[in-house]
Amino acid sequence: MPSPTFAEFGFSAPVIEALARKGFEEPTPIQALAIPVLLRGTEHLVARARTGTGKTAAFGLPLVERLSAPGPKVRALILVPTRELAVQVSGEIASFAPGPTPRIATVYGGASMSEQLRRLSRGVDIVVGTPGRVIDHIDRKTLDLSGLEWLVLDEADEMLDMGFIEDIEKVMDASNPERRVVLFSATMPYPIVRIARERLGSFTTVEDTTNPVQAGLTDQIWLEVRERDKLEALCRIVDAEDEFYGLVFCHTKIETDAVARALSERGYAAEALHGDVSQDMRERTLGRFREKKTLILVATDVAARGIDVERLTHVVNFNLPFDPESYTHRIGRTGRAGNKGTAITFVTPEEYRRLFALRRASGDGLHKGSVPTVSDVIEAKRARIKAKTAGAAREVLGLSFHTDEDDDEDALLDGSAASDEAAARPDAEPRESDADADADSAEGSGELGGKKSPGSEKAAKPIVVAPKKTNPSVVAFYELADELLAILPPRDALASLAAAAYSGDLDPRRYGEVRDVSVDSAATARLYVGIGKQDGAWPKDVAAVVKRLTGLPDRLVDDIEVLERFSFVSVPFEAAEKAIAEARRQRGAPPVRIATPKGGPGGAGGPKRSYGPKGGYDKGKPYKPRGAGPGDAPGGKPYRKPRPAK
Fold first, then answer.
1. Contacts of 380 (CB under 8 A, 6+ apart)
2. Number of domains in the chain
């Protein structure tokens, strides 16, 4: 079924023109669901959609359409969790307005109260604000919500996480009881559902079920990496990309500062953002990030709330998110508005159990990748240096050359595009030859013939150089080239200039080691298998069950521990997932779950702890496989009888 157009929603011509100016062509899924509801009737709306799906336009466009005439009191209030989101939302709604109405005011903490008071006193139709500052204005009697027609709660789950639930309820109590409530949230935790049920009564629900992976805009990758190798892995990822402009998420303020400082010391344009950063410093930091003076912003989840920066190429989870909702919020900041993005998640061997939950939440989108090797990074840098050199030839020296796509840069660097050093200089004198006569006749266009460079088997390719009367700085570069060629062979001169410009970039010694955890026993998952000694099971029997479920060879089924009612076994992570899925599917198979790793959550070396998942077995009854007779294994073969005690 084709997607509806904005015109089909019934928007007025001025709003349609404003959308055309912004380049909006067709609505996103959540806009297609929410806008028709908000343009008709007066029912409350609860909408669920992940970050970056166009929620602001979903409620902003109906507000602009319905509030085109100014009123005596505030007609709409939009509550958002952070100052940054308040500024963003008000700016976006203003861009939809075809004229001076609706009038919009933004109120938030950390800004001048007197300026906000002046703005409110002049009369506004829409107020966008954070809960705390909105409460301040209500208490001061400077914000009258008695005539409110619309109350929008944007990023409701984020406001809940930040402790604003009581403020939200206070705002609802202070507003016109006949107002219409519109609630947008990426997730629906119980307190949000409770507010909807208790406060709204009946309401309409819409949900954007589009998976970000199905949209194909965000490539989700997880990487096995040891804790101590994360910084090195991050540096390799940044250097391997043609462009890296992204957010790096850490759990704590201390780690955020440490990662940002380490990146800065290595020469990366990185800064930290967390709860201890002052409001003034936060604004300056975000300003530099938006202007791309800072390319890597290392942040905590709380500090990053409300940050909406366009065209982020990457989101890196330096630490595994605690829950799928946090993961969804994080990766939703890239792969937006039709731009592709990459979300990379570092996973240590001790975190495999939590990774299962994320993989279920992301559908089939989260897949395993590998840390770039040093040779991969060096080759990527080499390609960028060649491209920059060719770009400088075009933009600075005024040269242009036509080559195939694959050897575009090589034509400049191997000299095949130029006839010789003299002919390539913009101040070169014409030579007396047939080829040069042709060049003179084309002097008005600056076109010269070319020939093969020494040792090159490629055909000569035409080159266009700047006219003789050209920019003095360009002439200066050619004069410098003459001086260098007088003391150095051409190849050495070019290599020297490249080394001076890109010192250290191609030196593999700047990178440390990232150990391949797949060769380490700690890189396995610990499985709970619901058969034990009371079932007559021995290690060989447990191994047979696991091999039947996974297809693994004997050497990859390791560290089997048979207890009274259940057993433990270590297998490669990917095989663990398969074992769990097959155990659920196959009739008669024992229950299989992820268990706490031997030695506790930290892996080997800690106090020995071995236990099954909660509810994994019945303490009162021995496990009996479904469809099997007494003493039969799930596969139909009898277990070996227990050996008599000596």
1. 239, 240, 241, 242, 372
2. 4
Between 210 and 272, where is the model more confident? 272
Whether the model pTM is above 0.90: no
- Claim to verify: residue 198 and residue 281 sit in the same structural domain: no
d(CA 196, CA 183): 8
Residue 211 pLDDT level (bands cut at 50, 70, 90): low
Per the prediction, the chain carries an average pLDDT of 76
Task: State which of 347, 372, 397 marks the end of a domain.
Answer: 372
Distance CA 522, CA 572 (A): 10
The model's pLDDT over 476-493, given as tens digits with 9 standing for 90+, comes to: 888 888 888 889 888 888
Helix (H, G, I), strand (E, B) or coil at 627: coil
- The alpha carbons of the chain give a radius of gyration, in whole angstroms, of 32
Least confident of 89-93, 99-103, 178-182, 442-446: 442-446
Q: Is residue 125 part of a domain?
A: yes
Please state, in angstroms and rounded to a whole number, the distance separating the CA atoms of residues 175 and 393: 64
Does one domain contain both 95 and 226? Answer: no
Quote the tokens at residue 490.
Answer: 């051409």
Cis link prior to 102 (omega < 30° from 0)?
yes
Residue 281 counted as domain residue: yes
Same domain, 121 and 168: yes
Helices (H), 324-471: 324-331, 352-361, 374-395, 408-413, 421-424, 434-441
Q: Assess if residue 154 is contained within a domain.
A: yes
Of 284, 323, 285, 268, the closest CA to residue 301 belongs to: 323
Token pair for 473: 């700085």
SS3 571: strand
Q: Is residue 616 domain-resident?
A: yes
Model confidence at 83: pLDDT above 60? yes
Give residue 474's domain range: 408-500
Tracing tokens 């009367």 back to the chain, one arrives at 469
Paired tokens of 272: 């930290």
Domain at 335, CATH number: 3.40.50.300
Q: Are 155 and 184 in contact (CB under 8 A)?
A: yes
> How many whole angstroms separate alpha carbon 431 and alpha carbon 433?
6
Higher pLDDT, 341 or 444: 341
Q: Are residues 24 and 153 in the same domain?
A: yes
Q: Are residues 235 and 257 in the same domain?
A: yes
pLDDT the model gives residue 490:
86
> What's the rounded Cα separation, in Å, for the pair 564 and 542?
13
Query: Do residues 349 and 466 share a domain?
Result: no
CA dihedral 70, 75, 76, 82 (to 10 degrees): 90
- Last residue of some domain: 152, 182, 207? 207
Q: Assess contact for 381 and 369: CB atoms under 8 A.
A: no
- Given this model, what pLDDT does residue 626 score? 34
Q: Are residues 169 and 64 in the same domain?
A: yes
Give the pLDDT confidence of 575-620 residue by residue, as tens digits: 887 888 888 888 888 988 877 444 333 333 333 333 333 333 333 3
